[in-house]
Amino acid sequence: MVDWMEIEKKHFMRTVERAPLTIVKGQGSHVWDESGKKYLDFVAGWAVNSLGHCHPAVVEAVRRQVGELIQTSNHYYTIPQLQLAQLLVENSSLDKIFLCNSGAEATEGAVKLARRYGKLHLDGAYEVITGTGSFHGRTLAMVSASGQLKHQAPYTPLPAGFINVEYNNIEAIKKATSRTVCAVMLEPVQGEGGVNVPSPDYLKEVRRWCDEKGIVLILDEIQTGIGRTGTLFAHQSFGIEPDIMSLAKGLGGGLPIGAIMAKDKFSVFTFGEHGSTFGGNPVTCAAAFETLKFILENDVPRNAYDMGQRLTERLNGLSAKHPGLITNIRGKGLLMAVQFSSDIAKTLAQKCLEAGLLVNDVKPNAIRLMPALTITAGEIDEAVDLLDKAITRLGVGN
């Protein structure tokens, strides 16, 4: 048998500490390794596989499109791109769209758009306020935007123009706002930061402050958008609308795509001010269009809400079974975290892997659960049972 892990060690820049698992097949909420062992996947490509692995609608869209047109450039019109743009705009509160290839590109483009607005309408204001614990991507600018020192430290000096303030603290935003600030950029629920859900009124207060000061509110919905938290976009459950929004991850149903969306007032790019060679690629757009169409027609966000409720209930039961071990269960919809009283997440994730469950050790003391939005009640129950089994094998539960 080929030692794929040794090949990775020999040839790859080792930027990711991979789990000892080579996945060769995926279907729905399950994957299989090269020996044929089956796993229940509660990572879903880091919240990417919104309809699960190899969903028939996505597979057929890709198969059809690669036989017709794979790539042109944005010098020409293509139908899948325009179909996706229309469907996104018609089902959001935003008016215009730019398609790119990833979440990092989407957030970077959103910041560029806000800076352009600041130059045109806010006397050249250019700074963007972000939250501590945030994660907005791995470009140099987005590392600077992200409020996590561990990501910033290796790359100093960082690009200027970002002010990191305490998340879920409106007074911190107010204090940081000056005449050089053009925007506030926040995740409605922080994902990579540990699944941090703000207080119910926080985003409304931020929205009011941005309106009062005339600055842009950017919402990074890379991880929370496209049904993940129980509504099509997370901001809907908080009762606000953004001026600019970034999307990626679950939009493509497994294929790489990102999007910047903006209200007309803030859509200030003009010819030559932004662009992308592969952005809006016909194949990825065809997959994204069918993914979004399926999500809307089948009310998949409702399933995410309902299954999120069930997952929370089952995890609460697990917490009661292991008192003192699980200190917090938090999240929204199917973006959940389980926090522990000690730094056991990495070891527990390995025990889960051995038991046949894939989870993400998002923090030293917390695991993140983000399954397909089409997950079933039976699969939720199976996952919690496997997590319970892994905790018992770890020897830390009661």
Automatic annotation (TrEMBL):
InterPro entries: AcOrn/SuccOrn_fam, Aminotrans_3, Aminotrans_3_PPA_site, Class-III_PLP-dep_AT, PyrdxlP-dep_Trfase, PyrdxlP-dep_Trfase_major, PyrdxlP-dep_Trfase_small. Binds 1 pyridoxal phosphate per subunit. Pfam families: Aminotran_3. Pyridoxal 5'-phosphate binds at residues 103-104, 135, 220-223, 277. It is an enzyme of class 2 (transferase). It is found in: Cytoplasm. Pathway: Amino-acid biosynthesis; L-arginine biosynthesis; N(2)-acetyl-L-ornithine from L-glutamate: step 4/4. Keywords: Amino-acid biosynthesis, Aminotransferase, Arginine biosynthesis, Cytoplasm, Pyridoxal phosphate, Transferase. Its cofactor is pyridoxal 5'-phosphate. Its main location: cytoplasm. Its EC number is 2.6.1.11. The modification N6-(pyridoxal phosphate)lysine is found at residue 249. It comes from the Bacteria. N(2)-acetyl-L-ornithine binds at residues 138, 276. It catalyses: N(2)-acetyl-L-ornithine + 2-oxoglutarate = N-acetyl-L-glutamate 5-semialdehyde + L-glutamate. PROSITE patterns: AA_TRANSFER_CLASS_3. PANTHER family: ACETYLORNITHINE AMINOTRANSFERASE, MITOCHONDRIAL (PTHR11986:SF79), AMINOTRANSFERASE CLASS III (PTHR11986). May also have succinyldiaminopimelate aminotransferase activity, thus carrying out the corresponding step in lysine biosynthesis. Homodimer. Belongs to the class-III pyridoxal-phosphate-dependent aminotransferase family. ArgD subfamily. This is Acetylornithine aminotransferase. It comes from Dehalogenimonas etheniformans. The gene is argD.
